Amino acid sequence: MAVRLWATSEDLGAMNPDLAWYMTIEGGFFYAVHASEPGYSLEQLKQLLRPVLSLRMTFLATIDAISPFTLPTTLFPRLRHAEFVNVSSAALLAPFTNNGAISSMQIADSNLPALDLSRYTNLSTLTLITVRCDASPIVLPTSLAPPRLAINMTSSNAHFASLGVARAYALNITTDSVDNCRALQRTSFEPSTTTPRCLCVNTTLVCPTTPTIPTPPTIALPTSGSASSLPSTAVASALSTGAIVGVVLGALVFLCLLISLALYYRRQHKTLKAHVWASNSNPSSPNEAYLEVRSPHQRVISLVASLPDPCQVFRDAFPDFTLPLEKEKTSKLATSRSMRLCYSNGAKLALFPIKVTASDKAAFIQRVQMLRDLPPHRHLVALLGVSVINFRTEFAVAVQFADRGSLAHALHHGPPVPAPLEMAHGIASGLAALHAQTVCFDGLTPHRVLVDKAFTCLLDTLHLLRTPHHHHNALVSFGSDNMAYMAPEVLRGEPTTVAADVYALGMLLGEIWTRTRPYTALLTGHGFVHCDMVLLAAARDHVRVPPFDMVSHAGVAAVVAMCTVDDVTARPTAEGVADVLVDLVRASEASSSRLSSSPHQL
């Protein structure tokens, strides 16, 4: 039987091999083989692909060559993330996206005549890399289960069909440049009377959720059938005549007041000037002294204008990264001593400020530039821009607001978290991204991990902006709730390394799974200060104190133990921890699937 190689797929999980997809020319039967293994039947293929969560698909044949053949749309019933390369038609995506039920999708190196995403109701992230879709606009879903859809466009040429008032979620589209963002705003997201304005925040187009438009109140006028009502023409005439008379009288009164004030001040000025001209010595009356003090008024204004602007150094450092927040009202965050909050065109922003007269503003600018150079990552807090705020007394860095606050608040003061292993994987993934850029977080605690509305964890990169004057001069601070996450070598006075970040990552993993703070027994019995003193003494004596009484999950307990060993060289990397957590998530979901599909024992 003649066959033709159609596509290849990889990243099917640790338990499944990479696949090569073939099609038969005569019968149109699809099957997949790996190397020299025999082909799978369609039923065998369904069983093989049932637990797959992530997929990367490369298409090698055009849509014209496979148009007579079809595949079921539920080949991957548990798929969450899919990457596609060399897509020639959106029809190819249906069998490999669980019929549109995936939450994250990436399309690369493709030329599509059309792309309809209206049935992708669970999509939260869409990435388009070198994609052309200029024949027709991309159709977005009208409503989504996630509250926000993030779209990243890299070297792509596409525009979007307008949804008007139908869109019920926030939309963020990141482009290559500010010009591309503004062009996309003009072509696809022009504001109208029924849609909120989409704002270009540097290279990102931010569209808030479409609000419900209130119905304007109606005023009931007397009807002609009422015995006491006047005819409509008579009522209108009476109202218009009274309004005209009132406006004219008000204008005349206001004009008379202005003329009276002008005449009064002119008379006073002439009187004071006559007193000064009549005097040939020092001022002999308060009036003369008052006039002499007022005389150099313009000279004082010129002197103030000639002083250097303390904000100019910040404007010069970020000419293309500035947000129009100078006149926006800001307020302090209740959970932070330094952070501020403001609203800009409906978007809620968190601000990290510094005084414009600070002595270390050059170091602050350098750290902001360092954060701007970091590659974007979904588990790192991204900078949106900078601005001068509070009457030009402070310079602030703006980031997107995290709805659920810090991880510490979400774990100990909020509802139960739905997916603890996925939250821990997000922290490990963000930490690995920093380590790949040779950046050490230095001080990872649950207070420096933020949680958004979808329980996605993001490392608070604003922590990296804190220059040394933000920290205490002492090596450690007792009772601060931070020492529990510090590696033993750091407590002994050694410099912080990426291995110390992995130690703190292990502590966070245990805290997320057990929903208890490390060393709970010590904290409950003796308090924070005593607990910190015990940990410092144990670190200097090379004695291990168990951080958690019991971790019910064997895999989680093993990862926590590996991350928190005293030997620095024996700890895994953050990337290795992230890979292990992915396998634990898949194993947990596979176990849950088996339990739900097995019959109940009577």
UniProtKB/TrEMBL annotation:
<feature type="transmembrane region" description="Helical">
    <location>
        <begin position="243"/>
        <end position="265"/>
    </location>
</feature>
<keyword id="KW-0418">Kinase</keyword>
<dbReference type="InterPro" id="IPR001245">
    <property type="entry name" value="Ser-Thr/Tyr_kinase_cat_dom"/>
</dbReference>
<keyword id="KW-1133">Transmembrane helix</keyword>
<feature type="domain" description="Protein kinase">
    <location>
        <begin position="319"/>
        <end position="585"/>
    </location>
</feature>
<keyword id="KW-0808">Transferase</keyword>
<keyword id="KW-0812">Transmembrane</keyword>
<dbReference type="InterPro" id="IPR011009">
    <property type="entry name" value="Kinase-like_dom_sf"/>
</dbReference>
<keyword id="KW-0472">Membrane</keyword>
<dbReference type="InterPro" id="IPR000719">
    <property type="entry name" value="Prot_kinase_dom"/>
</dbReference>
<keyword id="KW-0723">Serine/threonine-protein kinase</keyword>
<dbReference type="Pfam" id="PF07714">
    <property type="entry name" value="PK_Tyr_Ser-Thr"/>
</dbReference>
<protein>
    <submittedName>
        <fullName>Serine/threonine protein kinase</fullName>
    </submittedName>
</protein>
<dbReference type="GO" id="GO:0004674">
    <property type="term" value="F:protein serine/threonine kinase activity"/>
</dbReference>
<dbReference type="GO" id="GO:0005524">
    <property type="term" value="F:ATP binding"/>
</dbReference>
<dbReference type="InterPro" id="IPR046959">
    <property type="entry name" value="PRK1-6/SRF4-like"/>
</dbReference>
